[in-house]
Amino acid sequence: MQANKKLLILPGDGIGPEVMAETRRVIEWMDRRRMVTFDISEDLVGGAAIDARGTPITDATMQAARDADAILFGSVGGPKWDKLGFDLRPEIAILRLRKELDLFANLRPATVLDPLVDASTLKPEVVRGLDLMIVRESTGGVYFGTPRGVETLPDGQQRGFDTESYTTHEIERVARVGFELARKRGNRVTSVEKANVMQSGLFWRQTVTALHAREYADVALSHMYADNCAMQLVRNPRQFDVIVTSNIFGDLLSDLASMLTGSLGMLPSATLGAVQPSGKRHALYEPIHGSAPDIAGKGVANPLAQMLSFAMLLRYSFDMEEDARLIERAATAVLASGLRTGDLGGGAGAVGTRAMGDALLRALDTLAA
Ligand code: IPM
Ligand code: MG
Average of pLDDT values for 353-363? Predict the structure, then answer.
């Protein structure tokens, strides 16, 4: 029997609690079937925490996050909290977790599962078999750069400003994650910036080029401007293996890439920190779909991205590759059986969150029998 693993669950707002409830059933299933036990605690974040405690995330929750072996995050935000002002946004919860736990490498895979090849708005022959990984820097750039603010100019106008900045260290450590991943996949990295316009973009390109020559010459490296990358992702997405890019470009390109796969409701992500001297590595796992306020509370959300985020958690935090695969295979089996939530084009025959959860558990039973 292995030691208990400490899991912090933060469902958040909107569809977060609904899809997390189904994912907890998967966790309980694993608890029952496997030689591993999770110590689970759950807490409020985002709008839910603002309502209950007046802040998007409390210091106590931050401490629990630091103590956890892994964090499973739902989603935050919604129209209810839109007017509270910049310093009381639900989104502060996820941004503070990324920043204070130094979760700098956001892994966003975009894979097209065979049963879903027709769910994409792109032609099947363009997306079939797609398997790309976006490595998005997630503690730097314009998300956190200073100075930032709104100031009043001598002529009475106002001026809003943010700062994009990257240090050598910040670029190298996220690029390393990309190169290491590429070695286990297709061995190709595309580094994405705007070196033709931004000083920090040119610096990014030079820094990645130098690191590559020093440590990763065995990996094929190419460079691409972010606008061209957006176009290439739609034109021929299978040309990519690993994309490494900044916080803001990664935010944009990962939303774009997700729709190649048919639905935002399918894609998980992992956000990893550095391996510490103790061997511990902070890590947070979340679906990339967000809180989807338009469908929240209706029981129709697709729980698969949250479940697949848990699979990534098993893989990256606990080295439980086999168990991660089991969940991924169960998801593929459920989709192959024709079951669809609304986001997957289920139309009139679409099933709800709970039914998708039931089907996933049945598929796990079958696969593990
Ligand atoms: C994401 C989201 C977040 C981001 C928001 C909720 C702050 O869009 O994880 O991609 O911009 O990083
Ligand atoms: Mg985003």
Answer: 98
